[in-house]
Amino acid sequence: MKRSKQTRGEIEAKQRKAEEWRRTLAQRAAERRRLRDYKIALARDEVPVVTSRLAPTNSYSIPDFVERATYRPEPFVCKDCGFAEVWTPLQQKWWYETAKGDVFTKAVRCRACRTRARARKSAARRVHLEGLARKKPSAS
Q1: Residue 4: is its pLDDT beyond 70?
Q2: Within 10 Å of residue 8's Cβ, how many Cβ atoms?
Q3: What is the mean pLDDT of the chain?
Q4: Distance, CA of 135 to CA of 133 (rounded, Å)
């Protein structure tokens, strides 16, 4: 036989569901605010720093981008070819937060020179390993 009154368990289940829905809406609103702030920073040519994603460092000093809490475009001259370039805020964010690069390093080579240097190093490594393989006495 069906009762007309809700049981305590049904009431608590509805309350839990409502609370979960409010939490979901709050998370969505926070994500929208974060995205809006990110777009505003990009329009100003700045990207916010997420300090929790930076690689740990034992230095007593704090890098300037952490103090101001944003990455800004940084012009530099390539040390190989002398070409003037700009290290963009998104490239900095990737280097420091995703690749976990040291926070006190800066860009010194343009993309073309980095590619050439990487190819040169891998070729030298391959030649070295081939030389080691030739030196090994065969196990008999």
Answers
A1: no
A2: 8
A3: 88
A4: 5
Rounded Cα gap, residues 118 and 130, in angstroms: 18
Q: Are 70 and 46 in contact (CB under 8 A)?
A: yes
Q: What is the pTM of this model?
A: 0.61
- Kindly state the average pLDDT of the residues 121-137: 92
Per-residue pLDDT band at 1 (split at 50, 70, 90): very low
Q: Are 111 and 94 in contact (CB under 8 A)?
A: no
76 CB neighbour count, 10 Å cutoff: 15
* Spatial CA neighbour of 92 closest among 62, 117, 118, 65: 65
Nearest to 104 by CA among 43, 49, 46, 63: 63
